[in-house]
Amino acid sequence: MRKNELPVASESVEQICLFRWAAYEEGKYPELALMHHIPNGGKRNITTAKRLKLEGVKSGVPDISLPVARNGFHGLYIELKKKKGNGTTKNQDCWLKSLNAQGYYAIVCKGWEEASKEILDYLGEGEMI
After folding, report:
1. In CATH, what number does 11-123 get?
2. pLDDT for position 127
3. Which CA distances in Å does 98 have to 32, 93, 107?
4. Taking the mean position of all CA atoms in its chain, how far away is CA 91?
């Protein structure tokens, strides 16, 4: 990090900001109340990880789901990344491709601001693809 640069927010902080934004916008867009996080990531002990896998947790599933049909799509999935740094894994790329093939709008967003713009576009407030 350079002397005058701010640190890059973690994915967790970006996601918290996105859900705070969504809560604020629910008055205008009540559908945002359906948006939720899919907790597939994170560090876990081996026992918990094995149990969650048996319960159906799968590697690569996008972080966020908005189960609202719009613009010919069944719903929106977002793989949220921090603004600078890490990219998607092969599993994440496979999930995004498969979800798109099944009629969902599945995308990668860098930072909560990009994600909020994509959500508004999806809900019909901006330019859709």
Report:
1. 3.40.1350.10
2. 55
3. 24, 9, 11
4. 15
- Three-point CA angle 104, 110, 112, nearest 5°: 85
pLDDT beyond 60 at 8? yes
What's the rounded Cα separation, in Å, for the pair 59 and 56? Answer: 10
- Answer for the pair 31, 66: CB distance below 8 angstroms, yes or no: yes
Report how far apart, in Å, the C-alpha atoms of 116 and of each of 4, 45, 46, 76 are.
27, 33, 35, 12
91, two tokens? 């599993």
Q: pTM of the prediction? A: 0.87
Alpha carbon distance 28, 50 (integer Å) = 41
Radius of gyration of the chain (CA): 16
**How far is 86 from 101, CA to CA, in rounded Å?**
25
Query: Which residues, other chains included, contact 45 with Cβ-Cβ below 8 Å and sequence gap of 6+?
Result: none
